Amino acid sequence: MQLTKLNLNFNNRLHSVTAPLTCPYCGKVVELTERNSTMMAFSKNQEIYLKILFAKCCSKNLAATYLLEKPQNEEIKIEFISSYPMSSDTYFYPSIQDLSPNCIRLYKDSSFAYDHNMYDLAAMGYRKSLEYLIKDYAIKELNKPKEEVVKKSLYDSISSYMPLQQLINTADVVRLLANDKTHYQEKYKEYDIEVLKKYLDIFLKLIDTDYSINHPPVSRQN
Predict the structure, then answer these.
(1) What are the φ and ψ backbone dihedral angles of 69, each rounded to 5 degrees?
(2) How many whole angstroms separate alpha carbon 203 and alpha carbon 195?
(3) pLDDT recorded at residue 172
(4) Contact by Cβ (8 Å): 67, 45
(5) Each residue of 164-218: pLDDT tens digit?
(6) pLDDT tens digits, residue range 146-169?
(7) Tell me, what's the pLDDT at 116?
(8) Sign (positive/negative) of CA torsion 215, 146, 134, 110?
(9) What's the CA gap between 168 and 176, in Å, rounded?
(10) Which residue(s) pair with 13 in the sheet?
């Protein structure tokens, strides 16, 4: 999880403490404000705080827990413990956020499975994330009819809607390696999930590049 510093209230005093850098809902760098706080005594010199923080970008709450220690004759120490929902370490390009929020949601879910060593589940989730992005790209960028797009298999979607050979090549690596995890006998055992993740991240970058080229901030027509 990527972290930043945030001023929060502990015992009626502001302290600069660690907090999530990115929003767990959209993946953007988040602006947080404190809404509520509950303190629970943990031991003689320790207190646990549950903070409800408001994420401005999505107008939703998240929870963060802190351990406050009060050693005798020393300054208090405040340690960030965890947050919920958990933020992903992955940076999501603004273009992907605009094109396919479901792609981001599925990528995060798959990353959770990956972080807990559930690699087969993660691979299948990454494949679904890829499929959402390609189909949302076809609908939003290529203006293809939704009723046409949703009926296509991932294989056909890649062939029909990806404008560059690099996109086809990278998407096919993810598709083939993820599909392999659904079979009793795997065909590509020599390639682990790190290869799949690598090519999915390349694909995301290529989509971002294509989107940025097609949506320049300024152009000669301005």
Answers:
(1) -110, 140
(2) 12
(3) 97
(4) no
(5) 999 999 999 999 999 999 998 999 989 999 999 999 999 999 999 999 999 898 9
(6) 999 999 999 999 999 998 999 999
(7) 84
(8) positive
(9) 12
(10) 10
- Give the pLDDT confidence of 83-142 residue by residue, as tens digits: 988 776 666 788 898 899 999 889 988 988 887 899 999 999 999 999 999 999 999 999
Q: Going edge to edge, which strands form the sheet with 77-84?
A: 32-43, 46-55, 60-69, 77-84
Q: Are 52 and 63 in contact (CB under 8 A)?
A: yes
pLDDT of residue 86: 77
Question: Which pair of structure tokens corresponds to residue 161?
Answer: 């809607």
pTM: 0.68
The DSSP string of the chain is --EEEEEEEETTEEEEEEEESB-TTT-SB--EEEEEEEEEEEETTEEEEEEEEEETTTTEEEEEEEEEE--TTS--EEEEEEEESPPPS----HHHHHH-HHHHHHHHHHHHHHHTT-HHHHHHHHHHHHHHHHHHHHHHTS---HHHHTTS-HHHHHHHH--SHHHHHHHHHHHHHHHHTTSSS-S-TTS-HHHHHHHHHHHHHHHHHHHHHHS-SS-TT-
How far lies 16's CA from each of 11, 33, 73, 173, 197, in Å? 13, 13, 20, 45, 35
Residue with tokens 């301005």: 222
